[in-house]
Fold each of these.
Amino acid sequence: MSEALARIEKRVIPVLACERLPIRECLNRVNNEAVKSPRKVPPSPNSAMDGYALAIGSLIEGSIAELEEIGTAFAGVPYIGDCGPGQCVRIMTGALVPVGTDAVIMQEQTELSENGKVRVDANHRVGENIRQAGEDIEQGEIVIEAGVRLSPADLGVLASLGIAKLQVKRQPVVAFFSTGDELMPVGEPLQPGMIYDSNRYSLYGMLASLPVEIVDLGVVRDNPDSMREALANASTKADLIISTGGVSVGEADYIKPALADLGDTEFWKIAIKPGRPLTFGQIGNSIFMGLPGNPVAVMITFHQFVAPAIEVLSGASMKPPLLVPARSLERMRKKPGRTEFQRGVATLDKDNQWQVGKTGKQGSGILTSMSRANCLIVLPDDNDGVEPGDMVSIQFLDWAH
Ligand code: AMP
Ligand code: MG
């Protein structure tokens, strides 16, 4: 598994082209150059609370000071003028701290005396409730590295710096097709011996949640010419081509010869279950990934290999899978030698620890085992079975909540 990922990382060349886009359109896109802050955030000291701004020097040790309120500072409308000893300024959250003051006392910690003075005790310190200039971001600081996928928080950070547009990598174009003489499109009555093509829908769903351009090339029939034509066509359009089916040995295995004609391919038998056969290679400038036909294997191999390949292609770095420990609620039979991905439902127990059970039958054609799952239970090569109460690793499915 890890060797396959390392080979993908080595072979996949990130897209080079960039575009400058308004920052909202940069969400989930890959940042091209490190962003250095042109200014401090916040630009000037301001209040973190509604209260009174004053000089700590105006307070009286062991006693209550009574200060004269000389005006109000609002966010966006500063108090103009100095605040002297014995004086204070009413201040709102986000308002600039007036000249001559060095602390903001929360309203709740003050009292108004009968003659309108603001009463404050001496238990306060310089800088209290003041957000200092540059406290969030210093001028010149790198706030977003190159190669980072931009999150909602990143958009906020860019906006806080006044940056309206950003250079991001072009989105990779991903084309996909199903192969099989038995496949029928949804919307037509099912003919004897045929099945509906589900892989293009689960694939579409997984791709739609990624920042890529999607090209659906439909169903390709099991013959060498159609296969070759489909691959040649896809390679003129896409950075990544994904097919499903037609890669298992013995049957209508037309992907292999078509690829041998058109490109440079590696056929892998990866020691995973489900999803053993996976084809990886290149046609012209396009990366090709031939997934197995079984619907569960399609989703698992996409999750484990295609999604990381798309990360690299997008110009981001491959992230190691996030594995979370969970206590198994069930016995799981397994022989050593392959990494197995069981479909699971993880819940929190009464001590807030993850526990996990399987989603019923686990065959590689049982797609409902996937739709009912919120995680994959990852049983490594050397695992030889799980007993109830054993700890296992789970990987949450990003589309399941
Ligand atoms: P194959 O790898 O082409 O032999 O396919 C393995 C199994 O997956 C067979 O039972 C196929 O009928 C099934 N299969 C292949 N492609 C699809 C698809 N697009 N949708 C649903 N099932 C499929
Ligand atoms: Mg087939």
Note: The mean pLDDT is 94.
Amino acid sequence: MKIFCVGRNYVDHAKELGNEVPAEPVIFMKPKSALLQPHTPFYYPEFSNELHYEIELVLRICKNGKYISERQANKYYNGITVGIDFTARDIQNELKKKGLPWEKAKSWDNSAVVGTWKEVPVDIYKKPINFSLKNNSEVVQTGISSDMMFGFDEIIAHISNYFSLNIGDLIFTGTPAGVGECVVGDVLEGFYEEERLFELEIK
Ligand code: ZN
């Protein structure tokens, strides 16, 4: 199982971190060990002093493929949920300054959290999906899928030009503006429309 993530897929978020808006999807990966297993506590990583949440829509791949066309891409995912791409922002800023890879900031154990899976709606492109994150009961991030620079099918087509996609692979499709810091004791809740798909306490 592989976890792909898209960076800078929402213009407002790219700008809030002072990044250029990319001409093609920015892709990075997390290993299987990054996925927080159900009923497992989430601990603040000891190597960071600036842990950020990033709420994202996450897709689950249901069919093996490579060189998938955009037109065929919708056959390759059947699950969708909201998740958090946890980021050690202090580490990432250091790595970015030096032009180094992001893994230490993004791909550590349990840095990928996913909510309960839902079936992908048939009208996923006609009816954009609203999603949000609450921290201690306050809404801190909201997004809508129609604001993505690269849509679900475009992302899948792009990734599959470089990597084979396999059943069970996950794709974090990028975070909207509003990323921010969380601390021990915070309770994060992820929403897909009005439905809460996860609740997580930072230990
Ligand atoms: Zn992200």
Note: The domain at 3-34+48-201 is CATH 3.90.850.10 (Fumarylacetoacetate hydrolase; domain 2).
